[in-house]
UniProtKB/TrEMBL annotation:
Similarity comment text for this entry: Belongs to the PBP/GOBP family.
Organism ancestry: Eukaryota, Metazoa, Ecdysozoa, Arthropoda, Hexapoda
Organism per entry: Drosophila erecta (Fruit fly)
Keyword Disulfide bond listed: yes
Protein name: Odorant-binding protein 56e
Keywords: Disulfide bond, Secreted, Signal
Length: 132
């Protein structure tokens, strides 16, 4: 299942080409996305919608997919964001100052459970990707 390329983590979606990920980083993101899509049972259409920034699908599987991807990337653990890891992995790619601005907007977001938290964080970073 070809799901989507994700920007080395949170701001994934369509930011990949904008921040200049290496082919290796793109491949790793794709593998994570494929594994999480299979694990959570989402469709290709659901994954593509999420990739394009369409957050209208509130299917719990989609939320758990976003959480899985962030966990597999090392940005979340047990529903808790790891801001230091986000900064360490994405700062060199996106620019530390710009990433910190997005972190200030997004990192305190909490959902009703770990899947909801992951989804909301994914959404926030996606919606603020222009700043990264």
């Amino acid at each position: 299942m070809k799901v989507f390329l994700v920007f080395a983590a949170l701001a994934a979606l369509s930011v990949a080409s904008a921040v200049g990920l290496t082919d290796s980083q793109k491949a790793e993101g794709k593998l994570r996305a494929q594994a999480c899509a299979k694990q959570e049972g989402i469709t290709k259409e659901q994954a593509l919608a999420l990739r394009s920034g369409n957050f209208a699908d509130s299917d719990p599987k989609v939320k758990c997919f976003a959480n899985c991807f962030l966990e597999q990337s090392g940005f979340l653990a047990n529903g808790q964001l790891k801001p230091d890891v986000v900064l360490a992995k994405l700062g060199p790619i996106a620019g530390e100052a710009r990433l910190k601005e997005v972190q200030a907007k997004c990192d305190s977001i909490k959902g009703t459970d770990k899947c909801d938290t992951g989804y909301k964080l994914y959404k926030c970073y996606s919606e603020n990707r222009a700043q990264i």
